[in-house]
Design goal:
9 helices; Methyltransferase, Methionine Synthase (B12-binding Domains), Chain A, domain 1; five-stranded parallel β-sheet; globular; binds CO-5-methoxybenzimidazolylcobamide
Length: about 210
Amino acid sequence: MPSFTELTQAVAAGKRTETVRLTQEFLAAGTPPQNIVEQGLVPGMAIVGEKFRRNEIFVPEMLIAARAMKEALKLLEPLLVAAGIKPKYTAIIGTAQGDLHDIGKNLVAMMWRGANFNVIDLGTNVSADRYVAAAREHQAHLVGISALLTTTMPAMKDAVLALKAAGLAGTKIVIGGAPVTQDFANEIGADGFAADAGSAVELARQMVGAAA
Ligand code: B1M
């Protein structure tokens, strides 16, 4: 049987064929799918997030690693569903109203999925009401708002205010995007800010109180 370290390294290096082969070997050896996700795949994406944060790798490498993880998850998901195992935390994500940029938001969503969050992606141009409705419907632990335009930062503020006003107990709000800063997050009352997709994973885990 392979080791989890081998699987972690295969994901981190974006080796899709090897990731799938190792996952199949674990399954053939009777390893529970949840252990494969938590001890093999998720740590691989954590390495990717950390390297991206340190500018040691860039968007293409991150996408390649995510594709490797996705292929392995395709094998595992039906088994996880059959066993009734669901990710423990749910996150809503979307780009602020008026804003159509989604590349950074998609990267954050992908990294959160890699960290085993159930991610509901509302897409772009998301109104405050839609964030609130989705957070309520899915009992979200986390709501992520992305903005790339200085002109859509006020819409981000509106969404944060609406989410706070909705009194959703246990829902944390995090924001990010090129023009957004920690100061702005403090100013509008968001619970957290991340400068990049790697940091967004650490932040999400902190926010929900998940073990590192
Ligand atoms: Co637009 N655009 N754009 N654009 N565009 C920018 C953002 C701009 C800086 C270009 C410039 O002028 N130099 C500028 C904004 C200026 C400003 O407001 N200060 C701009 C403008 C003005 C516009 C239009 C208004 C242009 C026009 O029509 N006159 C228009 C607006 C449309 C709209 O949204 N209503 C527009 C349109 C577009 C395209 C549609 C052509 C396209 C978007 C395609 C798409 O997203 N599907 C586009 C693009 C591609 C860009 C640039 C070139 C690249 C953005 C990008 O994807 N970066 C951008 C210039 C630039 O940034 N160099 C620009 C890569 C991505 C990985 O980074 O999104 O920053 P980023 O995400 C990072 C972090 O910010 C962070 O993590 C990500 C990964 O590390 N992050 C989060 C992001 N969201 C997060 C959420 C989190 C946490 C972290 O928690 C929830």
